Amino acid sequence: MTRLKARLQEKIEEHRPRTTRLLKEFGKVVIDEVTIDQCIGGARDIKCLVTDISYLDSQEGIRFRGKLIPETFAALPKLPGAEYPTVESFWYFLLTGEIPTAEEAEEIHQDFKARAKVPAYVFDVLRALPKDSHPMVMLSTAVLAMQKESKFNKAYHSLKKNDYWDTTYEDACDLLAKLPEIAAFIYRYKYKNGDIIPGNYELDMGANFAHMMGIAKPYDDVARMYFILHSDHESGNVSAHTTHLVASALSDAYYAFSAGLNGLAGPLHGLANQEVLQWIMEFQTKMNGAEPTEENVKAALWDTLNSGHVIPGYGHAVLRKTDPRYTAQMEFCQKHLPNDPLFKLVNMIYHVAPGVLTEQGKTKNPWPNVDAQSGVIQWYYGLTEYDFYTVLFGVGRAIGVLANITWDRALGYALERPKSVTTAMLEDWAAKG
Ligand code: AMX
């Protein structure tokens, strides 16, 4: 057993009495109420999910296990010469809430190496799909195709509830170890004439992904930063919630994560990173080679709003300030690509868009989210096929949602089953005031 798994087991055993006590002694304590607009309006803000992996504050943004993004980057072990921590060390941190030593992180690297081989049938399935399938369809299909590998599913009938987490953790590690190769395969197969670069599993996950994508340094650090930043955003967002919901039926990690990816593929969620680049490219085409100005950007933003569309990369269901994930990527750009024209344009949009959205007066948050900045970095390092960007988000998101469903199983979280009401019932409540 790895030190991570042993530590996780201890943590789970320490934690269980807290959940049991809350349920037994305080189960009927009221923590929220539900209004009609929340009922119709996507359950916004209703407190009805529990996770200790991350917490999102509307002002300060995400905390992973209590740490803000800069604190997370500073605390975790890094490889010599790397600016960002390894994904492996972050996996340890998300699962246990503790900072691993370099040796503990390396043990995960070796563990993932042993789990990394992608079954050949996955590539056959991907090759059988129409070549113009969206890369997110390919990623989700590949994950689903591997469901027969699930250790949880195989063991289910002989397991006791308290043991569910063990094989879920195994499935999570198996899946996580394979995802970079699957994602890189999709990229090279679809956009590089099938010129596949075999993995080098001596490298950590970020560096190996960069290697399989065929992109030179510092893309290894981009991959590490990107996967960590996109990993988790507490439990209510569509991809995390979907993964949790599907897993709550005791569907295994493959079914659950594939479903989560399908939610991530929506333009209001993870696909926004693709939409941002598409918006910028269309804007540049309209500019016909002329230098962008704040006036032109403003006019284009209004055109988008007036045509009934959202400005991609702006707004958020929870955040009410600039997304710290945006800021983290902006700081990377300032350091590595300060004079890049696309970066300058994104900064120009940042100066203009919040004012336009505020003037329009609809959105509760006129500030940029993670997706407004992320494509610029990818584009700079040669990854210009922007319909691939959500796949990168998906690989990162796996880290968070898989850690979450492992803990869901450990704490015996119930089948999720909220209650629906009819419009007539809402009208009755409305009449009673
Ligand atoms: N452009 C235009 N209008 C926007 C807007 C934007 N960027 N953000 C919100 N609005 C509008 C909403 O569409 C809504 O209009 P309606 O009343 O006509 O339906 C109104 O403002 C109120 O919305 P809200 O309460 O501020 O936001 P929300 O919680 O309903 O939605 C989100 C949040 C992210 C879906 C929304 O801000 C949006 O569509 N943003 C653009 C897409 C995007 O960037 N998504 C990625 C989010 C991060 C992620 O998950 N990756």
From TrEMBL:
EC number per UniProt: 2.3.3.16
Keyword Transferase (UniProt): yes
SUPFAM superfamilies xref list: Citrate synthase (SSF48256)
UniProt keyword Repeat, yes or no: no
Annotated TM spans: none
Cross-referenced InterPro entries: Citrate_synth-like_lrg_a-sub (IPR016142), Citrate_synth-like_sm_a-sub (IPR016143), Citrate_synthase (IPR002020), Citrate_synthase_AS (IPR019810), Citrate_synthase_sf (IPR036969)
Pathway it works in: Carbohydrate metabolism; tricarboxylic acid cycle; isocitrate from oxaloacetate: step 1/2
Top EC class, one word: transferase
Pfam families: Citrate_synt
Keywords, alphabetical: Transferase
Family: Belongs to the citrate synthase family.
Protein name per Swiss-Prot or TrEMBL: citrate synthase (unknown stereospecificity)
Highest classification ranks of the organism: Bacteria, Pseudomonadati, Acidobacteriota, Holophagae, Holophagales
